[in-house]
Amino acid sequence: MRVLGIDFGEARMGLAISDPTGFLASGIGTVRVTGFKSAIDEAVKAALEHKAELIVVGLPVNMDGSQGERAERCRDFAKEVEASSGIRTEMYDERRTTILAAGFMNETGTFGKKRKDAIDTLSAQIILQSYLDRNRK
């Protein structure tokens, strides 16, 4: 089963897709969007294009486990994507994914515009791979 991973943002949105076995996540790019509706449209388009059977959206949880306005916005996004696509969505705790992605970027010497363009994709890939790993065990 192919799973689409999304690092939701209303300006940029990172996307990743699993292989058909649901074992390995690969980044498929960062999409520039112009707000909530645009992000929904792009997510649905990517899910259909890649024949996803499940969509996993990163849930921004604070380090103390609390959830704020941003988490609620991500939940609303996931509900709208599910309603528009007909594809089930799940939320996945994305704590520390941006930090991990930044660490990878530092290790590979990726800075400047390249970094900005790649960090959302890598975050989506980390979210999705973490989800796949957790559900495989």
Describe, in plain words, how this protein is organized in 3D.
Helices cover 50% and strands 23% of the residues. The chain has 137 residues and is an alpha/beta fold. Strands 3-2-1-4-5 form a five-stranded mixed sheet, with helices on both faces. The two termini are 16 Å apart. The mean pLDDT is 91.
Highest CATH level, the class: Alpha Beta
The fourth-level CATH homologous superfamily is YqgF/RNase H-like domain
Overall pLDDT confidence: 91
Count the domains: 1
CATH architecture: 2-Layer Sandwich
Major sheet attributes: 5 strands, mixed
Global outline: globular
Low-confidence stretches: none
> What is the succession of H and E elements?
EEEHEHEHH
SS-derived structural category: alpha/beta
How are the strands of the largest sheet arranged? 3-2-1-4-5
Give me the Rg, rounded: 14 Å
Q: Might you state the CATH topology name?
A: Nucleotidyltransferase, domain 5
The span between the termini is 16 Å
Q: How much beta, percentage-wise? A: 15-25%
Helix proportion range:
40-55%
Helical segment tally? 4
Keywords, separated by commas or semicolons:
five-stranded mixed β-sheet; Nucleotidyltransferase, domain 5; single chain; 137 residues; alpha/beta; globular; 4 helices
Write the layout of secondary structure elements.
Elements: E1 3-7, E2 12-18, E3 25-32, H1 36-49, E4 54-59, H2 69-85, E5 89-93, H3 97-108, H4 112-136
Parallel strand pairs: 1-4, 4-5
Antiparallel strand pairs: 1-2, 2-3
In short:
This protein has helices at 36-49, 69-85, 97-108, 112-136, and strands spanning 3-7, 12-18, 25-32, 54-59, 89-93.
